[in-house]
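Q: What changes when iron/sulfur cluster is included in the input?
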Amino acid sequence: MNSDDPGGTGRGSARFPTTPRKGWASVPSSEWDDWRWQLRNRLFSLAGLEQHLSLSLSERRGAAAALHRLKIGITPYFLGLIDRHRPSCPIRRQVLPSLEETFCDPDERDDPINEEAESPVPGLVHRYPDRVLLLATDRCAGYCRYCTRSRMVGGRNFHLHLKDALAYLKKHTEVRDVLLSGGDPLLLSDEKLGHLLSSIRAISHVEFVRIGTRMPVFLPQRITPALCAILRRHHPLWMSIHVNHPGELSAEARQALEQLSDAGIPLGSQSVLLTGVNDDLETMKTLVHKLLLCRVRPYYLYQCDLIRGSRHFRAPIGKGLEIIEGLRGFTSGYAVPQLVIDAPGGGGKVPINPDYVIYRDAERVVFRNYKGKIFEYPEPSAAAIPPTPPSLNPEYALQN
Ligand code: SF4
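A: The predicted holo structure follows.
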C-alpha cells in the first residue's frame, strides 16, 4: 500500500496536493480563500513576476513584449503550481510569455477561426445551425499564452451589446443551445452572472446553457456556495472546464469541481494539445484519469489554433492521434476525449480520429482493434429474407 494513499485506491490526496502559498505564507486564510483578494493580487507585470520567479532571458523579453500583446495575469494561487526556477515547467509555459510568441508564421492569424465574420451582433458568434456562442466578458482570472481569443481578451477591442444579443436570440428560434464563454463568464459578479443567465433562460426556445471556464484551474476560490446556488437555478446548465495538465488538478481545484458537480452541473473538459505541456501519452493519461476522479468527463482535445505567435506551442497533428490511439482501448472509454481541429478560416470543429477501418465495401468492413488484431464485420445482406413458413409463424398458430 502506498503511504501517500492510505486507502490504496488511487483516489488519495497525494494525487491532489494542496497548493503551496509561495510568497504569501503570512496571508491569512480569510484573504487567501477570497477570490476577490486573489484577483486584486494577481501578477500583471515583469516587475511583479521578478519578485516571485527566476526569469529566463526569453521570459523577460516576452514579458516586455506582452505590454503590446496579450496581457499577463497570474493569480497568487496559480503561481503556487509553478516551478519557480524551471522555465520549461509545463504549467509555467502556459501563462508566462516568452520571446517565441513574438515570432509569427505566415499561416497564423489574429482571428484564426474567423469568429468575427460569423458575429451578427458584437460578442455573439452564430456558426452552427442550432447553437450560438455568447462572449460574456473579455476578462479572465489568468491569461493563456495560446488563447484563441488573444485578439480581444484582457481589455482589447471587446464589445458585447447584451441587449442586441438577447434580441437576436429571441428572434432566432432555431437556437436551442447557448454557450457562454469569453473571457471567463465566471469572472462576472454573482449578480451580473445571475442576471445574464436569467435573461437567457427567459427565452423559451433556449433549452440548454453551457459555460466554458478555466476558473476551477486559475481561481478555484471563485466556486463558492453562493455561485453554485445561482448556477443551479438555471438548469439544465452544463460546464466545460479548460484544463491542460494533471498538475493543474490540485486539492483546491478538485474541491471546486466537486462543488459544481454537487450542484448538479455535468462537467466536461477541454484541453489544448500543447508542446512541452501535455504532448505525451503519459501526461494525458494522468490528466484524464485525474479528471474522472474529479467527476469531469474528458470531452475535447483541441489541436492548437493558428493564433499569432503559437508555433512553439503547436504540436503535430500526428501527436494528438498517437495520444488518442494510446488511450482508446487501453483505458476506460469515458477517459478518452475527442481530438478536434477547429478548421482554420471558420469551418467549425472537425473530429480527427486514428484509422481503425482498413477496408470497406458493400459486403464487409475490415478493421483493427486497439491491439492491432484484424476483424471483419459482414454488412447485412441485400437479399430478401425468405418468408417464414406458416407453421412456424406464431401469429398463424394463434389464429388457427
Ligand atoms: S482562460 Fe480561456 S479565454 Fe481566458 S486567456 Fe485562457 S484560453 Fe483565453
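Observations recorded in class: DSSP finds 14 helices and twelve strands in the chain.
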